[in-house]
Task: structure prediction
Amino acid sequence: MNNLLEIKNLTKSFGGLIAVNNVSFVVREGIIKSIIGPNGAGKTTLFNLISGFYKSDDGEIIFKNQKINKLKPFQIAKKKIIRTFQNIKLFSNMTVLENIMTGLHLSGKSGFIASMFKFPNSLIEEKKIKKKSFEILEKFNLTKVANENVSNLPFGQQRIIELARAYSSEPELLLLDEPAAGLNIYETMELAEIIKQINNNKTTILLVEHDMALVMKISNEIVVLNSGQKIAEDIPEKIQKNPEVIKIYLGEENA
Amino acid sequence: MVKKIIFLIFIFIIVIALQKILTKYGIEFYLTQIIMSIYYTICILGLCLLMGYAGQISLGQAGFFAIGGYTSAVLTTLNLMPYFQQNNKFILFLIKLNAAAFREDMFGEKILTITPFAAFCFAIIFSAIIAFLIGIPVLKLKGHYLAMATLGVGIIIYRIVLGTQIFGCADGIYDLPEFKLFANLAISGSSKLRVQNYYIAIVILSIILILLYNLINSRIGRALRAIHTSEDAAEALGINTARYKLYVFVISAIIAAIAGCLLTHFNGGISPAEASIMKSVKYVAIVAVGGMANFYGVMFMGIILQFLSLRGYFGSFDDLIFGAILVAMMLFSSEGLFNIFKLRKKYE
Result:
């Protein structure tokens, strides 16, 4: 399998605090890789670096053999790296359908003038986007709520919608930032199924998550961060037995 | 669909009935203020797109209105005769293009000026360029800071038109020619043309409304609304937020300039008051009371409130009324007047 994403010696500091310190790892095509670690370990910072919301101080981020460090978030999204947010960021002034249609922004081309004057190709494009959106709604079991305003829906469903919106952008690499936060155990298991399903369709997934049951269940590989540094990187079974990891999560035996 | 058609027919009947009634009862002069408020409303619709839908507040909308108005006012009143007499090649070229024409000024003297249509086109291009140049630095700001920066732009434009000789200082510019459209139609304040001007204004308003409506219900419109709620999420989905914000700022400035240009021709002149900050605040208040992201609401409130204001019903409390409206809307119904009914429906 090819390396889809390579992180090389990535460093980012905020003033005196080094949030991500010389982190390197590789995400191979088609796998689900998780990043775990205690609060403040630098997981979300790492995500913000990959998706372009922060600029790295040092190191490289390479996606499909191209350096993407300097790109703006929308340019990174155009390269088909799509992220979700820890605190759900849905477009609350829109319906579920419109949210998904916005997710399909990159599959359209028509600009301001074409949209204002309803040029024929913009109308054709709009139809395609709508059709595709309904397919995605179907896939995520959201057809019933298509015309509901997203802010009227329960939290768990909002998570799914955000996932569906990210999925609609046809990502090659999907970055999920704590998708199970705030979900109950049933919703989390449902989410696990959905993530697996997305992965089946050859979408590589990088996951930041606190819910260990979910992480161990779906990940192919795990990276452990602590205080901005990489502590371990392995398959789930070995991570569970890694003494260093146990130490940072549970403390030392005779502490 | 059927509902929509019935609604449109209803509006159509109201528009015609209003004119017939006013004419029948000999109070046709009301149309003058209605026409003026329609042009102001066009300007406010531009702000509605920018503020209500894309979420970028601007307190400089009156400035762009004034740029449109003053550009066409200056061009259509500046006498080019001396250059013509020197056989200036550029002037001859303009005459050839029909972009300049001879006419008589208010004292019956023969003068050569740019034609209203050419001036109109130039005003649009000029305002777009100004908005583009201002937008690049200003739109990097968010929230209150954006409001303050655009307020600053508005004040600068006001001071420039107030203090510059070519813009007539505090007197403004008057004696604009009528804006001949096609056939016998012309935008002009003369009382003979009042009825036709009413319909011209309605048609222009409808065209602008349809274009904006199309825009907002398209891929671009969704991107703009996305920027309104979460710039980060929009960016993460591949929307070039900086560029879209700039473009929507330019479009709203162009719409303001169109309104400014047409109203200046209708009034036959323009004064610095059009660029004043209170005008911008008034526009913001009307967008708020119309329901922010609601073209129809903003349009109706715009026409009604501007009409009342222009007829002088608010007297010297005019600014106070609009200030109070703005405060009241923010306090009690940040979603506008029309949404009060919607809210009630939701909780019934």
Q: What stands out?
A: The two ends of chain B are 26 Å apart (CA to CA).
